[in-house]
Structure formats: C-alpha cells, structure tokens
Give the backbone structure.
Amino acid sequence: MQEKKSILKHPILGEVTVIRKPRTRRITLRVRGGTICATLPYICPTALLEEILDNNIENLKRQVAATRQRVIDWDFTLKSPCFYLKLHRSSNNDTQITGENGAYILSCPATTDFSNSDTQQKLRNAIKVALRHRAKLILPKRLAQLAAHHEMKYSNVSVRDSHSRWGSCNTRGSISLSIYLVLLPIELIDYVLRHELCHTVYMDHSPQFWTLLDKLCGTSSKELRNQLKSYHTDF
C-alpha cells in the first residue's frame, strides 16, 4: 500500500493537502508556506479530519497568515545579524547573486515579471543558494566553538535546506542544521546549536535533557524556545 495524496477543499480554510500513509497512526497538521498539510492513517475517515479542522480554524488561520510566503519584488529584503539580502536592477538579462561577509545582492533584469510563479521560484532558489553559502561559513564553526566551550562532542555536522526543523541529531552524534538558521537572532542560533549538542547526551526530551540545556544556556531554555516559535523557514 503506497502513500496517497489528495486535496480537501475546506469552506473556510480553503485547500488542504491530505497525505494518507499506511504506517501513520494519528492525524497531524502542519502549516508551511501558507498551506495546510494533513497527514493521516490510510483508512482514516475524511469526516474525522474535517472535524479536527473545524475545531482548529482560528489557530490554523493564524498559522497560515504567519507562514504565507512573501512575494519577492524590488522592495524585498532579508535582514538578520548574520545575513542581509536585497534586490538590484540589472542592465543585462541575467539573474545572478553576489555577495560576501553575509551581505548579498540579487541582480534581476529591469523587466522582471514578479507576478510570474516560475520567476518567484527561480528567485527563491537563488536566495537559497546565498543562504546555504552563508550557513556553511558560520554554522559549523559556531557549533565547534560551543562544543569546545561546553566540553561536548559530536561526530560530524551537515547543513541542509530543511523546512521541517531547525536542526536534528541522530544516535551517531551526527548533527544536521537548517540553512534558515542564519535568519535568526544570534541568541536563537546558539539555542538551536546547544539543543542539538544536548541530544548527543540525551536523545529524548526528558527532564534530564531540559536540565542540561538550561545549564548550557545559562538560563531557562523555555523562554528561548518560545521566542523560536515566532520564526518560520519560509521567507
């Protein structure tokens, strides 16, 4: 039995992407890029999903608004302590991105049609190249600094285009970090890196894990965790 994907049209929330998986045991909802996605067991009644959507309308509407992708146009900028990008009108017909020290220029032809969905995707892909470039320069180095400071070890680190999570750590101590971390304030970047370092000791979110993370953060990690929830990966 294979995964099955369909679209449910909700009268208030609009289109909901429905993914049925044979091994899934419960209904989960997530919102990314302004789109609601529901993952549910293969034989789960659609009526049950509709009931859950109806009971969470206001919360889902807030999440959709918060994660809706911004339109990239001449006024588009990305700005954080570690990353800055703006658009520039180019005199030629090429779209290219240049930059150093965390400051990038995305040059586009003056005739660029920003209303075209293919153009939006092309520009978004170009920005991801800059994000990956910056992330590879600073995240592994900062992780190594924090690991040395806290006398902790990990096996290796990779930087990926991950939307679902800011970071992860497997049982072998291999840490994966999202390129979108460079869009966060520095204290939240450090929080995520320390979070993953703690997973090299505790693979769960047990009380011992949070106690260790609080120690590494020098304060209650709950406040930082709550701050992180206000950020999303779809720029």
User: Anything to note?
Assistant: The CA atoms of residues 10 and 50 lie 8 Å apart. The radius of gyration is 20 Å. The chain has three domains: 4-67, 77-133, 136-228. The first strand starts at residue 4 and ends at 10.
